[in-house]
């Protein structure tokens, strides 16, 4: 592929893939149209009107130079992720790096994580080959990235992997907190699994933090459950005062398990300061409370949540299970 880059303006970086067309003034040309604008404005895909190419191949535009997407090939589809309790699980990630950029994410402890987003273009092919030797087991999709973040709409790598896994003996758990309802695109695949797939939907997407019962993923979780798909939801972490936790829990179908976790004070990836800055910008009325939580380890709020839901059998407190 012939590749060339332009710095189009202070806010746009263009990465032009074959067929090459000069695009210094691309946004002003009528022969171009732009679509698939991601919700968080990190990535925009565009394509030429007169091109027969797929829109995700022809032109890639990266907003603000925040990070670049790089297409790579992998030799191993499976990875291990270690949990806070010391155990490990098998994972698959079609992408490394995440567009969601949640300020509380533990992956930020890795200073190299998400500087770029690596698109693992051949992962479904490698997975298909490796499944011939992997008889069965539990498998999670979504660790180094969210499998349904905006670029999945174009690349469809999560969908391709799910189609490969659907006929295997693996027990698959999909973990996502993307709020674009894109997982519903793959209902045909999810309902075709040899071993029923499990979907874990996060309610802590920052775009939905203060939506309460109107959180998009509550609606998605309830819809999947009605279709017979096993669903768990997780509010990890609970963002005190910002989230309407009682309202969220009440809106989730009664037979869906709910997992809760506290806002962990992590400093290696500067998460505590990133969270505080976000709160101070979006919800300044809670800034003093977050100073206590983040810098003085005040857990008064979380103790009240534990006390309120202690006897609710469908609720699991992750920080109690892991002892951290």
User: How many helices in DSSP terms?
Assistant: 11
- Biggest sheet, strands in spatial order? 7-8-11-12-13-14-15-16
Distance between the termini: 49 Å
Structural class, please? alpha/beta
Oligomer: single chain
Overall geometry: globular
Helix content: 25-40%
Query: Over the alpha carbons, how many angstroms does the gyration radius reach?
Result: 21 Å
Q: What portion of residues belong to β-strands?
A: 15-25%
Largest sheet: 8 strands, mixed
Mean pLDDT: 79
What ranges have pLDDT less than 50 throughout 5 or more consecutive residues? Answer: 1-65
What does this structure look like?
The protein is 26% helix and 23% strand. α8 runs antiparallel to α9 (287-295). It is built from 11 helices and 16 strands. The strands form 3 sheets. An 8-stranded mixed β-sheet has the order 7-8-11-12-13-14-15-16. The chain is of the alpha/beta class and 324 residues long.
